[in-house]
Write a structure and sequence with these properties.
This protein is mainly α. It is built from four helices and three strands; from the N terminus they run H-E-H-H-E-E-H. Helix 1 packs antiparallel against helix 4.
């Protein structure tokens, strides 16, 4: 087991602690059950446990850096679940080395 030595943004190919992976799987299952078609922008805060905020998503969409997998239903923006999960994963950062005593990652 080797600790992480730098803080970095994580993507799907990076290793995350099992507790975080389990939480992400539970979140994805919850989103699929509650929003089978996709997550409406006005519900994204409640759906993701306030990790994402609708105004931030709207601003990022206008800048072209938002969740790429989205569509419009009438006047409502709906984000597809795989895109939401990628965005949530991109927000996760692991603690710095000085705070890594409790986090150990398998190599």
């Amino acid at each position: 087991m080797k600790p992480i030595t730098k803080q970095s943004s994580n993507t799907e190919d990076n290793n995350l602690p099992d507790e975080i992976e389990d939480s992400l799987k539970k979140l994805e299952t919850k989103l699929k059950a509650e929003f089978p078609f996709g997550v409406p922008r006005n519900k994204i805060a409640e759906a993701t446990g306030y990790i994402l905020h609708p105004r931030t998503c709207a601003n990022e969409d206008s800048l072209g850096t938002g969740i790429p997998e989205r569509c419009l239903l009438g006047r409502n923006t709906v984000y597809m679940i795989p895109g939401v999960m990628k965005k949530v994963r991109s927000k996760i950062t692991l603690p710095l080395k000085r705070r890594m005593s409790q986090w150990q990652l398998s190599s």
